[in-house]
Amino acid sequence: QVQLVESGGGSVQAGGSLRLSCAASGVTYYSFYCMAWFRQAPGEEREGVASIARNGATTYGDSVKGRFTISRDNAKNTLYLQMNNLKPEDTAMYYCARERGGWCSDPRAVSRFDYWGQGTQVTVSS
Questions:
Q1: Cβ atoms of 77 and 23 closer than 8 Å
Q2: Per residue in 104-123, pLDDT tens?
Q3: Over 90: is that where the pLDDT of 45 sits?
Q4: How many CB atoms lie within 10 A of CB 107?
Q5: Which of 14, 32, 71, 82 lies 20 to 30 Å (CA to CA) from residue 88?
Q6: How far is it between the farthest Cα atoms of the chain?
Q7: Count of C-beta atoms within a 10 Å radius of residue 93
Q8: How far apart are the first and last CA of the chain?
Q9: Please, which residues have CB within 8 angstroms of residue 62's CB and are 6 or more apart in sequence?
Q10: What's the CA gap between 1 and 49, in Å, rounded?
């Protein structure tokens, strides 16, 4: 059974930092896949935050560039999102996801991702 489990969310004041983790289980050849972080605030569409391809290439949404860093530890089947200088507008449920392929060709396209975690809440207060 494929599972993605996020952790590391919480409440933080503006300007603070959090590191999210996504542990994958039941996924063979984990290193093959593009992995990504999405977020969704109430009443808003799910937004692509960052992605990392099988070769380590990364992409970021414009709103988080320079503040967030995505990384992966293939030996541990774990995806990370380091979030610095958090802003109230970063408040959302954060989800990790696995793409059907390995290259993150369209990392904002929800339909290209076949497995999702249940999410971890990030709340940033001003």
A1: yes
A2: 998 889 999 999 999 999 99
A3: yes
A4: 25
A5: 71
A6: 42
A7: 18
A8: 40
A9: none
A10: 26
